[in-house]
Amino acid sequence: MPGPAVDLTVAAMAPITDIRLRALVRASGGPRYAVALAVDALGTGLLRPFLLLYGVTVLRLSAPVTGIAMTAGIVVGLVCMPAVGRWLDRGARSTVVAASMLVRVPGVALLLATPAGHAWPFATAALFLGIGNQAWPAAHAALVATVAHGRERDTALAAGRALRNAGLGTGALIATACLAGGAPALRALAAVTGLACLAAAALAWSVRLRASAAAVPAGDRRTDEVRADGAPPRMRALIAANVVYVFCLNVPEIALPLVLVSQLHASPVWSAAIFVANTVLVVTLQVPVTVLMSRFSRRSVLALAGVVLTVSYLGFLAATSLGHGWGAPAVAVVSVVCTLGEIIYAGSATALVTVLAPAHVLGRTLARFELSTGFGLAVSPAVITALAPHGPAALWGGLAGATLLSASAVAIEKDQGTQPKDSGTGPNGSAVSTSGALSASS
C-alpha cells in the first residue's frame, strides 16, 4: 500500500488514553503484516498442538521417541538465535520474519514425506519447525520496535501476542474438530499448515521493512548498556529471571493437567476448560492490561508480574490441599490469577528489552532474551514433571520461591546507559526504510 510517510513519533509521545485500531495496526507493521501474522498463527495452530499425536498416530512412533525428537528439535533450534540476532542487527526486519515462517515449510514437507516408523526424518522436521518457532518472536519484536516507539510499541507488541493467540486457538479448535478423521485428517492438517506458512511468509516479505544501522554516539560507548566492545547489554538478572518467568506459559498445558488428573483425579474436561479460558483471557485482556500498566515503569510491571505469579502458585498449593471435589474448581479459579500474571509478564518483558537495547545491537539483545525464553520453555516440562511426584509443596512451593526470587532480581537490577531509565523511548537513531506496506521515521 504505497503512500505518504507515517510519522509515529508524535503519536508515541502522546499519552495512550484509548486503543485506536487503525493506529494500532499501523504501529504493528501495517495491515498486510497483520494478515501475515494471522495466517501464520492459524496455520501453526492446526499442527503445533498435535505434533506429538502426528508422530504417534501417523508415523507410528512410540510416545517417548516422539517426545525426544520434538524436544531435540526445540533445543537445537535455539542454536540459530545468535545468527538471527546478527541478521537483525544488519538492518533486516520483515525478511527475517518471513524466513522464520518459510523455514517451517520444509519441516511440514518432511512430515508428509516421512514413512511410518522412521524417527530421524521426523526429528529433522521438528528441527525446521523449531527453528521457525524460536526465530519468529525476536524477529517480530525487532520489526515492531523499528516501526513503533514509546508506549505505542508496548501496545503493538501486546496486540501481536493477542492476535497470535487468537489464531493459534482458532487453528487448534478447527484441528480438534477434524481429529475424528484419524491419520488422513492429520496429514491434511499438516499440508494446510505448510500452505499457510508459505502464504504468510510471502505476505511478510512483501512488507519490505528494513532499519538502517544506527550510529551510537562515541561518548555513549563507555557505559554499561552500550559496551566498548559493541556487544549487547548483559542484563544478566533480567535474562536469568526470564527463564523462571516463562514457566507460567507451560502451567496451563502441563502442570495443571498433570495435577488435576493424576493428583486430584478430576475429569480431563477441567484441563480443557482452563486451557480455553487461558486463551480467551489472553486474547481479550492482553492489550487492555498492557495499556493500563503503561502508567508504571516496565521494570516495576515485570516485577509485579512475578509477584502475581507467585501468589497464583501459592493459590494452587492451597487449592490442591482441598482434595477431590472442591480441588478442581479451586484450581480453575486460581488459574485466572495465573493467566493475569502471564498477561502482565508478556506485556512488559519484551518491551523492556527493546527499551534497554541500544539500536545497533537490538537484534542480538532480543535474540539473547528469546534464547532464555526458549530454554525456559524447553526445560520447564522436565522440571514440572520431576517436581510433581514429590507433592504439591515441592511443585508449587518451588515455583513460587523461584519466581519471587526472580521478581526481586528484576526489581533491583539497575538500568544504566544511554537510554532514559525505562522511559519508553525507542532505540537511539533508528531509521526505517520500507517498500510497499509502510514508511516511518524515528
From TrEMBL:
Swiss-Prot/TrEMBL keywords: Cell membrane, Membrane, Transmembrane, Transmembrane helix, Transport
Ranges that cross the membrane: 33-55, 61-84, 96-116, 122-150, 162-182, 188-207, 237-260, 272-293, 300-319, 331-357, 369-388, 394-412
InterPro entries (alphabetical): MFS (IPR011701), MFS_trans_sf (IPR036259), MFS_Transporters (IPR050171)
Entry keyword annotation includes Transmembrane: yes
Polar residues compositional bias, start-end: 428-442
A matching Pfam family: MFS_1
Location of region: Disordered: 415-442
Name this polypeptide is given: MFS family permease
Annotated organism of origin: Streptomyces rishiriensis
